[in-house]
TrEMBL record:
PANTHER family: DIPEPTIDE TRANSPORT SYSTEM PERMEASE PROTEIN DPPB-RELATED (PTHR43163), PEPTIDE ABC TRANSPORTER PERMEASE PROTEIN (PTHR43163:SF3). It comes from the Bacteria. It is found in: Cell membrane. It comes from Halodurantibacterium flavum. Keywords: Cell membrane, Membrane, Transmembrane, Transmembrane helix, Transport. This is ABC transporter permease. Residues 95-304 form the ABC transmembrane type-1 domain. It is a multi-pass membrane protein. PROSITE patterns: ABC_TM1. CDD domains: TM_PBP2.
Length: 313
């Protein structure tokens, strides 16, 4: 197990290297001159040229890449072109709300989607099964921002149960944290729940057709134990896979959700960086989000051996 984890960690290095090259080239080939943006509209050509020299933009592309990569390996993500603050400091100040939202969404999704999928598999062909799958299709088809605005209208503007926008950290005010994180979590988890529930249902139904399930039932094993001990455990690998691959929905949905609910996280920071053409900040966020996605998939691969002892690496 440890050997496999170490090997997979080593394999992430070239993947992150490819992402770094892509991020560097994407920013260099994009329209617009960072020096002009940084200097402002009133800057003289001499001032722009001086900024270009300071940023190293007057050097060959390969020299620029190695200079940027060297600073990156030293933990220097550069300076924001818009706010003139260190990019690492800006990212560190925004990562807390995003991690909180992603964690609550993941936990809520697992708590709701797996029981939904299991129940739909148990009630296959019944009205309750069709209802669960209809809700899943509706949830998967509805954009996150639409769900967010509907939740705001019902539970904030009409009922007054939750604040419309804003965020409070768990450490500063636990009650306020619950109030501000509930609606964003519900909005972001809608698509995720629908995806996981559908996969859980189909995986469990496939397992229920296996010979050992029929043998367990023939031996008089209670139906509840058949589902929880045998069917769900053996159907866990596809479910864990879709939870990990669904992290792409989670990362993309964070950007929209944080904009709708005015949460000062990485999603809002992505929007602000793109609108301002803040190249160093965009590069740092692209690398960070890519690394998170890569390590989530690494964790999924490791969990395979936990849920299914037959898998060995």
């Amino acid at each position: 197990m440890l050997t496999y984890i170490a090997r997979r960690l080593i394999m992430t290095v070239p993947i992150l290297g490819i992402v770094a090259v892509f991020a560097f080239l994407l920013m260099r080939l994009a329209p617009g001159d960072p020096a002009v943006i940084m200097a402002g509209d009133t800057a003289s050509p001499e001032q722009i040229a001086e900024i270009r020299r300071g940023l190293g933009l007057d050097q060959p592309l390969l020299a620029q890449f190695f200079r940027w990569l060297t600073l990156l390996l030293q933990g220097d993500l550069g300076v924001s072109l818009h706010s003139h603050k260190p990019v690492a400091e800006m990212v560190a100040g925004r990562i807390g709300p995003t991690l909180s939202l992603a964690t609550t969404t993941m936990i809520f999704t697992i708590m709701v989607a797996i029981p939904m999928g299991t129940y739909a598999a148990w009630a296959r062909g019944r009205a309750s099964d069709r209802l669960v799958m209809a809700l899943a299709v509706l949830g998967f088809s509805t954009p996150v921002f639409v769900t967010g605005y509907v939740l705001i209208y019902i539970f904030s503007l009409k009922a007054g149960w939750f604040p419309v926008q804003g965020y409070a950290s768990l450490a500063s005010d636990p009650l306020r944290f619950v109030q501000t994180i509930t609606l964003p979590t519900l909005a972001l988890s809608t698509v995720y729940i629908a995806l996981v529930a559908r996969i859980a249902r189909s995986s469990i139904l496939e397992v229920l057709g296996e010979d050992y399930i029929r043998t367990a039932r023939a031996k008089g094993v209670p139906e509840r134990r058949v589902f929880l001990r045998h069917a769900l455990r053996n159907a866990s690998v596809p479910i864990v896979t879709v939870i990990g691959s669904g992290a792409a929905f989670l990362i993309g949905g964070v950007v929209v959700t944080e904009s709708v609910f005015n949460i000062p996280g990485l999603g809002r920071l992505v929007v602000e960086a793109v609108l301002a053409r803040d190249y160093p900040l965009i590069q740092a966020l692209l690398l960070l989000l890519s690394a998170i996605y890569i390590f989530i998939n690494l964790a999924v691969d490791v969990l395979y051996t936990v849920f299914d002892p037959r898998i060995r690496y």
